[in-house]
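PROTEIN DATA CARD
Card holder: TraB/GumN family protein
Chain length: 301
Origin: Pontibacter aydingkolensis
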Amino acid sequence: MRFPLKRFIHNRLITAYVILAVFTPIASMACVISTPRTLIWEVSGNGLKSPSYVFGTIHALCPEEFVVPELVKKRLQETEQLSLEVDMDAPNFMAELMQSATLPAGKTLSTMLKPEDYNLLAQHLANTMQLDLKMFDNMKPFMLQSLLLSQLTECKAVSYEQRLIEMAHAQGKEVIGVETIREQLAAMDRLPQQMQTDMLVKTVKDMSAARASYLEMVKLYLAQDLDGLTDITKEDLTPEEYTLYEETFLVARNMRWIPVIEREAKAKPTFFAVGAGHLGGEQGVLELLRRKGYTVKPILE
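Structure generated from the sequence above:
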């Protein structure tokens, strides 16, 4: 069972980011001032010989909505390497993904979920995707969330990460990451298991609401409205859940990324592409770089 499951997951997911795209909101941390409407920023000064760039992505879009702006293509061409959140070219990428996605020995979804919730999820997967929940019984809840992505987007989603990798390879550029897949998915383990399973069941119970919320996020992203993404996130989580989410998925990771961004930008001009939710706010990547002494300015054309 393990090999077919591994192959199935590899084929279903565009990238590891898609896993988190469903489970976690895209919104950025609350901003004190209005953020200019752009998704790409230039980072210069503080000893950098050449500028680097930070681009905010959304991890899943329908093909008809997907476009790589010319200003993004131009800045990628001007740099010497591409950095995503994780290096999907790493030879151990899939092995680490599978290891991080598997429940500890002795735990299964069937024991974590209430019987009625497990049956609800099993029926949903069988009716809508012709899948047997038993084949995922040793998978962590966020893996089940990833399977629901196509039902939220109602299309075969594409990602900026995959397209940027293709462009970087065509230009002979190296692809790196600001964190490992193990570090990224470890953030999920810091959420209480009850919170994880509750969010999974909530999605299945009200797919229409989950779909509407995700499509609203897409709309705000396409409008390059980083500030506007905040409120929709808070609507989906309790204040306690949002505080935990913000600290776990945004603040802690952003702060861990900054030394890596500094190191790589000093070594060579780099095009950094990370989730748009990591850019704005007082603890966002852009402000943290400013505090380090870098000049960070929006690219509007």
